[in-house]
Design brief:
extended; alpha/beta; 159 residues
Length: 159
């Protein structure tokens, strides 16, 4: 009998841990449904590293998530739909940017609030956007800038 009791207790603990992981995963991915959200749209020239589920942050605090992203075949821009928690009003002159957590971190959508007394309504499109910055592109420009700056400096000193 004691062997069966031990198996039941261990099985119950395994189920409790599994349920805990499911609750945690729901909270992390935003599927918990505990808070209502509204949707906004934005169009980016480049949205590298942004995908469904990517965080939307304001002042470093997660306020929503990306719910859809796709390519507009006419403009060749990344059309993005994201959510913002109810109760967080986004001024109409706000901008959104694809930002990076660092060299090795992922990207996220950053809402840069403006100062307008008027606010976006659900479904509105934010027009002021800043695309993601390619690290390789920056390094290439930096190296090219260094080469041309040193050449200009050398010819200026010799003249």
């Amino acid at each position: 009998m004691s062997e069966n009791t031990t198996e039941v207790i261990v099985g119950g603990l395994v189920l409790a841990v599994a349920a805990g992981f499911l609750v945690y995963a729901g909270q992390v991915t935003g599927l918990s449904g505990g808070q209502s959200e509204y949707r906004l749209n934005a169009s980016f020239r480049a949205a590298d590293g942004v995908e469904v589920g990517t965080d939307v942050r304001m002042a470093g605090v997660k306020v929503g998530r990306v719910v859809s992203i796709g390519l507009d075949p006419e403009t060749y821009r990344a059309e993005t739909t994201f959510t913002v928690r109810e109760g967080i009003a986004v001024p109409e002159d706000s901008a959104v940017a694809v930002s990076s957590e660092g060299l090795l971190g992922g990207n996220f959508i950053e809402v840069l609030p403006g100062g307008s007394p008027f606010y976006f309504e659900p479904g509105d499109e934010i027009e002021f956007t800043q695309a993601s910055v390619s690290l390789i592109g920056l390094l290439t420009k930096f190296v090219a800038g260094e080469d041309s700056a040193s050449d200009n400096g050398a010819s200026g000193d010799g003249g």
